[in-house]
Fold:
Amino acid sequence: MPTRFFGRYEVTFMRAVRRYGLLPTLRTRLRDVVLQLRWLYFTRVWGMDLHPYTLISTKAKLDRTYPRGIHIGEGTAVNFGAVILTHDLVREEYRDTRVGRNCMIGAHCILMPGVTIGDHSIVGAGAVVTKDVPPNSLVVGNPARVIRINVQTKDFGRMLDPGTAVAEAPQ
Ligand SMILES: CC(C)(COP(=O)(O)OP(=O)(O)OC[C@H]1O[C@@H](n2cnc3c(N)ncnc32)[C@H](O)[C@@H]1OP(=O)(O)O)[C@@H](O)C(=O)NCCC(=O)NCCS
Structure:
């Protein structure tokens, strides 16, 4: 089973230092160790369902009121400030929230309890997702709306094909 860590870097340490500088390279490598420890903490202590090959920012918030309701698939990135909710005291709901494979959950967005983000989908920064997102879609805004379909992504939601704008998509 692949993990993001240890020996999976695209460039060697020295090449990364030449390209990005010493401090950013050290920060990235050290952060990966921290993220690995956090993955263990989330999965072993809290019982969340996180694939080992994921990138969950240290500044993302995963709901610990109903932690077993969090499901995140292989190759998905959850960026800083993103909030993934599984409970809602107002409606007294505890629901499973699922993010598929090779998705990108943008900075500071909110996934409401019970939504499912389909594989290879991208949630733009700041979006508030209140409904399920189909696979291979790009959504933005509050409430989040699909603005592109047929999007293709590789790991961590890096776009291979930007897909078709919804206005141009066949009905
Ligand atoms: C969603 C995103 C991938 C779209 O990028 P893009 O493919 O270049 O999209 P465009 O810039 O062509 O934007 C298309 C439309 O969506 C709007 N839009 C783009 N991103 C938006 C966002 N996050 N929220 C609201 N609207 C957004 C644009 O204003 C544009 O609207 P218009 O057609 O009315 O002019 C990008 O904006 C984004 O949010 N990336 C994530 C950034 C992030 O979270 N980084 C954290 C570290 S990775």
In short: Residues 57 and 79 are 5 Å apart (CA to CA). Residues 79, 106-107, 122, 124-126, 138, 140-141, 147, 162 surround coenzyme A (CB under 6 Å).
